[in-house]
UniProtKB/TrEMBL annotation, chains A, B:
Modification after translation, per record: Topaquinone (TPQ) is generated by copper-dependent autoxidation of a specific tyrosyl residue.
Record keywords, A-Z: Copper, Disulfide bond, Metal-binding, Oxidoreductase, Signal, TPQ
Protein name (database record): Amine oxidase
Classification lineage: Eukaryota, Viridiplantae, Streptophyta, Embryophyta, Tracheophyta
Entry's cofactor comment: Contains 1 topaquinone per subunit.
């Protein structure tokens, strides 16, 4: 394990405050520690420590070693949380019990525990169960780092390295989940019917470059049994040249001179009047929005209880109970031995919170950002601090929220413009080679925009090819550099979005754009005019889950989550529109292919399910070697009623990635996502009440600044 | 005509410099006037004046009055422009001849002229022709304002107003093109076979609100013959209440108090080291980009000769010969008498350049923007200045161009991040009620992102309804307020993108994502592994135009413009990818419906044609009452060869708009567009050479600023 993660205990134990807020120059932040945690606050270091103590002290699990694979908040019932939230202005509201949900491994089994930590000095285990189904919990960082150290001590591997003329000192290995390929492939031959907890380990040449993904020792596969921490299978199937290190380093100063022409000077964003947002504990309030930013070691950032102030009525109205990234499914498209199994479910296998690293102030987030830390349980159960894990900032991109110029009056030109300033909560996950920049953006219009930006490094395959002309059969990718293929792959980033539009019970509506022939008959919608056709809206309210599986590319339709129990003054059902943005690919794998069975939800971008407390993870709770039998498609298969129920929207952002040379050695960002826009939620445009900015004089004209050239 | 537009002559005549650049605080701009115009420079005031003189002096048109409907640059042959551009570093390059293309109306006919203005003191008419086909040129502003003044002097209209109990003093009228609905509908009954140049005039109640679109005098239609400037038809078909003015005013201070909670403070973007871009005449250079920003009274902003510096080779490489917005098609979906004809082709009918108004510094564009003026010919042929018509600014939205955190090394955590700073050229068109914010964004990665953001006011329909429960039949829209319907409609924003990827001759390639069954047979692309399927790329090179009509929602495919004559060192054809962004709707009108015949291109987002100098306008040169017989679909119907030819990409951004109450009284911005991303154009990621920003210390920490609270 890297030193970065190893020694947080001092920091964690010394502080009662759950998060430390970074006070930036010219930023005004409220750094208040709540007297007791909000029911949705993530587990504090003290609470994580209490969980560990209770589990280790429990007689329910006697096997040792015992490793912690998941420790997270076991959320109170939604009704209790909502009651708590509604009483938030009252000083008399009582704290809810604090429970943790825990998955440990011990004695070759996965154990699920619920621990009461309401009194962190006297934690108690409430329940214990052993998971007998398919799949395993998230891999710990420690066991991955340990497994990665095994190959250089494995004689056949040393021989493979020697035979290739490589320097063993420069070898760096990484852990790859094996995926699930049917019971025959995943079952332990000794213990019939029981899956082996194994991973593949692939090795690379680091040495002259930190970009080892560009230098695979292609053809060599090791299999490590994690429970025994031993190599159980070894293949050296084929030898390809290791691509050269030259040109792969992405660090500043290693990539040659910058532009000789006018260099780009990044803007500096400053706010002379201070940040417009306030953070109180985990609650962020800004403009007309208020929401809770939490953290989970699997999901990463979690947005909860987002509500908006309605300027018309003065009321605070609920929009989102909880939103988080549920899974990132990344299948590669090369069926060969070293690649066929690379069908990652990153979040379930690796844990987004575990792979979220400190954001770099001023570059990962602009200078006006505030930062939040996160805490998770290490393999030993001890709290680990994840510093600067989330940033919150006001975003101004030079865009316009609304405008109009009216030129029809003969004596005056009216121009009204409101710049678009929004609030962003951001986390970045570096899940091995790929980096995902994950934004939740709140707009004063009432819109919530969810954006995922993909960057980082490609996973690259070694090859004999040094020129595209040599390629005679399907190479499953693009030749990026000598001996280097960037393989075809997909990304399916699935969000769990529990909208509660102005209340808990909602319906899912498809307003299908439908062409009509002009009948020339008034009364039927037609008219006696030369127009021959028009479109109208066919409203379909989803009764059950089957009605709510939508391919957004197939039929033009407006998709809405509405509250059928609330109407505007005009009589329209209050609602939010689900607006697909860029990246709407759906999986094209065969339905009977194993990774497609695991992530069968990836064939539709939109699903709607009734809210169930434990239906969180799209491929199921146990995603490593999971079979999908406990996932989104399986739940939806029950075809439950979803009309006027507490419902959850699942939205998948999808990308077919055909690599190109520009993706080498590091990928320019590609962004996509979706937007949740109010649609008849307000009586009128809520931005109307936004004040125009005060640009009476050029800003900073009278500045005398000493550090400009810094 | 409004005073705003009437008296520019003094300004225009007094200056030889074609554009004045606004020097902002802390911005460093090069304001250089070229010694002679670039061949793609728009016509200067002096040139416009010369055109007018030549046309009025010409014996070829004797009829008077003579009105100018289009005056624009008659571009030199592309080969000449390219030769000129390539010689640009040489001081000896000779100026190309300067020609103007002109459309006038005189004697009830449309006249086309070409005028030589190389010597602006002695302009000569080179050619003259009379247009005998269908359709009319762009409406002038003067004739629209004049036509709009006719109704209050028309006795039947005055009676209609009186009968509704309205105040004639508050009536404001606007001009609506009649569209084309077959020869029977559009032909003058007196002159067989000849179209009448007519418009419809619809009237509204302004008075208490500038948002007159929200207060239609529904049911009353006037038809004005523009050549006679007389009302030739009048209908008062049905009476609905005029919606009330209350709640429709969007001006600051008219919409009630702002948020009582934390007010949003817009960021201030400043650049202590000055702008990173330089403007020389119409040429913008920034980072690795260089391009020409022109202007046309029909197209608005025109981007030409965009080329990028290749840091690897030191060469400047061509990307885009010319890009501009070709048409905005906006059909409404109500077949009734007052609405069926509202099937706007905004650009051809109204002219985007004519309806581009001064950008508001600091709100339409951020504080670090520079501004360019535009000049067009008024109806009388005299030059009119369009001040602050285009802005250019560096954009920093807090986003990341690329990043990676590498956590696999046991002793160090590597994090490299480059913020995304791009350059935006922006124009805003307020085409009647709608506002279009039109951005061309250049990124250091080599990407060009084209974004259109829609805002402004809805066109609203009067109705009896005051509550949705009263609606019993298809209302063709949403009830937004009492007596106010927001009607269903579409927007199809079509761009002409003449990419010249690393040279003039290019091909269009569809890399279709194709599912393959794993044959378990190495050699066929399969492998002996449990994986059952994967996808690969089926490469289809378009031979003719028919191969290049693409519905981007139908089949997953990477679309590329490649140069088959240039390959990377790795052997990949150099190319640019066409990446659809948000808003990919296609028209669903019946093929035989008249507006669909005019804009039949709106059923596919992507078309590719061979470059032809005069194939610019998607619905044809004469769009007002045009029949589409001279438009994109007609040209493409010739099915010409496009492989390894000089080709043009046409991309349509599409939106089905179902209005909601939030669109009232002013619409929050909705954005969509597409991106042109280099794909094997460079040998590697060109952003690698971007320097990381210098954030050694918080910016402005030592500032002593006097105007912060201003």
């Amino acid at each position: 394990m890297s030193s970065r993660r190893g020694s947080c205990v001092g920091v964690c134990r010394s502080s009662l405050a759950m998060f430390r807020l970074i006070l930036l120059a010219l930023s005004i932040l409220t750094t208040a520690a709540s007297s007791h945690p909000h029911p949705l606050d993530p587990l504090s270091p003290a609470e994580l420590t209490a969980v560990r103590a209770a589990v280790l002290a429990s007689p329910l699990i006697s096997d040792r070693p015992l490793t912690f694979h998941y420790v997270g908040l076991d959320e109170p019932d939604k009704t209790d949380v909502l009651s708590y939230a509604e009483a938030r202005s009252s000083s008399s509201r009582a704290a809810l019990p604090r429970h943790a949900f825990v998955i440990t491994r011990a004695g070759g089994q996965s154990h699920e525990l619920r621990v009461d930590i309401t009194n962190a000095t006297a934690p108690t285990v409430l329940s214990h169960a052993i998971h007998h189904g398919a799949g395993f919990p998230t891999l710990t960082l420690d066991e991955q780092f340990e497994a990665a150290t095994l190959p250089p001590r494995h004689a056949p591997f040393v021989e493979s390295v020697r035979r290739r003329g490589l320097d063993l000192d420069d070898v760096l290995c990484a852990v790859f989940p094996v995926g699930w390929f049917g019971d025959a492939a995943n079952t332990n031959s000794q213990k019939k019917g029981q899956q082996r907890r194994v991973v593949k380990v692939m090795c690379f040449m680091a040495g002259e470059t930190p970009n080892f993904y560009a230098r695979p020792i292609e053809g060599v596969t090791l299999v490590v049994d994690l429970d025994r921490m031993a190599i159980v299978d070894y293949k050296d199937r084929v030898v390809y040249p290791v691509p050269k290190a030259e040109g792969t380093d992405y660090r500043a100063g290693k990539a040659g001179a910058s532009y000789t022409r006018h260099a780009t000077v990044p803007d500096v964003v400053v706010q002379p009047e201070g940040n417009g947002f306030h953070i109180d504990g985990h609650f962020v309030s800004w403009a007309n929005w208020e929401f809770h930013v939490g953290f989970d070691m699997r999901a990463g950032m979690v947005i909860s209880l987002a509500s908006i102030h309605d300027a018309e009525t003065g009321a605070r109205r609920r929009v989102l109970y909880r939103g988080f990234l549920s899974e990132i499914f990344v299948p590669y498209m090369d069926p060969t031995e070293e690649w066929y199994y690379r069908t990652f479910v990153d979040e379930g296998e690796y844990g987004l919170g575990l792979w979220a690293f400190p954001l770099q102030p001023g570059v990962d987030c602009p200078a006006n950002a505030a930062y939040l830390d996160g805490y998770y349980a290490g393999q030993d159960g001890k709290p680990v601090q994840n510093k600067n894990m989330i940033c919150v900032f006001e975003r101004y991109a030079g865009d316009v929220a609304w405008r109009h110029t009216e030129a029809s009056f003969p004596d005056k030109l009216i121009t009204e413009v409101r710049p678009e300033v929004s609030l962003v909560a951001r986390m970045v996950v570096s899940c091995g080679n790929y980096d995902y920049i994950l934004d939740w953006e709140f707009k004063t219009s009432g819109s919530i925009k969810v954006t995922v930006s993909l960057t980082g490094l490609l996973e690259m395959k070694g090859t004999d090819y040094t020129h595209a002309d040599q390629i005679r059969q399907d190479a499953h990718g693009t030749l990026l550099a000598e001996n280097t293929l960037g393989l075809y792959h997909d990304h399916y980033i699935t969000y769990h979005v529990d909208l509660d539009v102005d209340g808990t019970n909602n319906s899912f509506v498809k307003n299908v754009i439908t062409t009509r022939r002009n009948t020339n008959t008034p009364g039927s919608g037609g008219a006696d005019t030369p127009r021959r056709s028009y479109w109208t809206v066919s409203r379909e309210v989803a009764e059950t889950e089957a009605d709510a599986r939508v391919d957004v590319n197939a039929v033009p339709a407006d998709l809405l989550i509405v509250n059928p129990n609330k109407k505007t003054r005009m009589g329209n059902e209050v609602g939010y529109r689900v607006v697909p943005g860029a990246l709407t690919a759906a999986s094209v794998l065969d339905d009977d292919d194993y990774p497609q069975i695991v992530a069968s939800y990836s064939k539709k971008q939109v699903w709607v399910t009734p809210y169930m407390r434990d239906e969180k993870w799209a491929p199921g709770l146990y995603a490593d070697q999971g079979t999908g039998n406990d996932g989104l498609a399986a739940w939806s298969g029950r075809n439950r009623g979803i009309r006027n129920e507490d419902i959850v929207l699942w939205y998948t952002v999808g990308l077919h990635h055909i690599p190109c040379q520009e993706d080498f050695p590091v990928m320019p960002t590609v962004s996509g996502g979706f937007e949740l826009r109010p649609a008849n939620f307000f009586e009128r445009n809520s931005l109307l009440k936004t004040r125009p900015p005060r640009f009476g004089q050029p800003p900073f004209l009278n500045c005398s600044c000493g550090s400009h050239s810094g």
